[in-house]
Amino acid sequence: LGAAHDLREVLLVINNYTGDRLNFGLALTRARALYPRISIDAIVVADDVSLLKSPTPSLVGARGLGGNILVCKLVGAYAETGASLAQVKRFGDAVVGSLASIGVGLEHCHVPGRKVEGSASDEGDYDCEVGMGLHNEPGVRKGNFENAEQLVGEMLGMILNSRGDGNGEEAFLRIGKSVDDSVLFLNNLGGMSQLEMGAILDETLLQLKAISIHPRRIYSSAYMTSLNAPGFSLSLLNLSHLRRSLSQDGDIDVLALLDAPTEATAWAGVRTSWPDGIREFEHEQAETESMLRSLHQTQSVEPSSKGGGGDAKNYWQEADISVNAVEAGIRAACVRVLEIEADLTAYDTVVGDGDCGETFAAGAKAVLKALDSGDLDIKSLSPSDLMRRLGEILEASMGGTIGALLAIFFTSMATAVPSKASDSWHEAPAHALAALSTHTPARPGDRTIVDALSPFCSSLADQSPAKSNWTGCTRRCGRQGRARRATKGMKARLGRAVYVGGDEGLPPDPGACGVAAVLDGLWAGMGSA
What is stated as this protein's family in its record (predicted)? Predict the structure, then answer.
């Protein structure tokens, strides 16, 4: 972005998965901080209707499925017409609101290099799983279907009844005397043969025809795959609803946008014309590599405007905080995390995928390595630069949701630290937590790391930046183990623990335990320095 001097507007298209939201959110947060001249916005695609009528809906909301590609095609073509970022964003949101999808899997995908243990259907007497997500997430129903007619009928029924009771205008598509125009989008998840996809498409068209629905456009291909997963997703775009939603934006020819030519060879759609000339792939690759090198150099040398460089020492002194104490606290926090790695792994094996301990340990080791090598020289960094550098280290070393959450938190805190130490710098963590909340629905009580971060941020925000009160705050925040222990038995509303349910016998949330360990070590280390 920094090397693209003519770039003024950027739009992100994000599938509604926790990891996607957080990592794209981190990119958006960092880009806004580094390049304030560029306007950046995002569209969240949540087209999966399988969980809309769940008796216990998740805070995450509907997942993103293959309809994401249809959204990308439409907003990309609309942007090519010269529409502004605000117009494209509004159009994209309207497309998402007029889109409904449902996925099905006959089997899970197989990750290359991993041993195939057996068929998922071996675990029970069923042929396929309706409502399965792109990443093998559980569906809403496992069952046996005698033929494609039964399977397609159930999927179409879930789509058509997803917005109401299935009658009249309350249904997703109006049928009867006044039928809504629509687009049919069939996505192969990667492991279905062309013969099978052809049969599914024919059956879908037959059943739509039986209720007087004749799609204006029909697409069928492997648009968004899940490796070699033998499954597919079925999407309907309600063109009439989309036009009604855009009535104030003038006449937008959605079909023309779908038909517009594109250089994306994987788009198996209608072309009204082919672009002239031959693409020079080597030249394009060289330009891309040059942009990336330039961007990396810009980020490496760009100083913070908040007390970095020679002003760092003065900033710490004005804040009445010992740099040696800060380093001692960070080191102690890392050591404390490494001490409880096995506990975090044990907890996460019960409520997650078992990698929480390894993830936290990787971050702790990376920070210690940076301190030992001088790559993280606290004496030469202002608090803002320190937070930003910690965010970069954690982003590079910690994977998954935890890494993205912490990277967003530290990056946001770097932006929130005031230019003068005399200002309310102690409120920066609370501002960072508020910024984090825009990228995740997690709130205190949801059994996440927020249950450990929130007491720390609020306790610090309640204090004066004076040294005496800082010491008192460290004592209070050092006892945030209560918040960590309180997650024990909580009913999870986010993450993989959602599928485990609430149980008094469950361990505390491993992410909250990891953050509590960081705080325990931080305050113990600072207090002993």
Answer: Belongs to the dihydroxyacetone kinase (DAK) family.
**CA 388 to chain CA mean position, Å:** 20
Contact 409/453 with Cβ under 8 angstroms? Answer: yes
Pairwise CA distance, residues 468 & 320, whole Å: 10
pLDDT tens per residue across span 357-405 = 999 999 999 999 999 999 999 999 988 899 999 999 999 999 888 999 9
Quote the tokens at residue 88.
């494209």
Range ranked top by mean pLDDT from 232-246, 287-301, 313-327, 503-517: 232-246
Instruction: Name the pairing type of β-strands 39-45 and 141-143.
Output: unpaired
Domains 9-259 and 310-528 share a fold: no
Question: What ranges make up the beta strands (E) of 410-511?
Answer: none
Give the model confidence (pLDDT) of 82-120 as tens digits.
999 999 999 999 999 999 999 999 888 887 877 766 555
9-259 CATH fold = Hypothetical Protein Tm841; Chain: A;domain 3 (3.30.1180)
The CATH homologous superfamily for domain 310-528 is DhaL domain (1.25.40.340)
Q: Cβ-count burial of 143 within 10 angstroms (0-12 exposed, 13-18 middle, 19+ buried)? A: middle
Query: Which residue's structure tokens are 């001692």?
Result: 328
CB 11 within 8 A of CB 85: yes
Question: How many CA atoms lie less than 13 Å away from 196 in the CB half-sphere?
Answer: 14
* Domain ranges, ordered by start, for the chain: 9-259, 310-528
The residue whose two tokens read 């926790």 is 18
Strand ranges of the sheet holding 182-188, from the earlier edge strand across to the other edge: 141-143, 128-130, 99-105, 231-238, 182-188, 217-221
Residue where the block lists tokens 């949540």: 46
Distance, in Å, from the CA atom of 520 to the CA atom of 301, rounded to the nearest integer, reads 34
Question: Could you list the active site residues?
Answer: 135
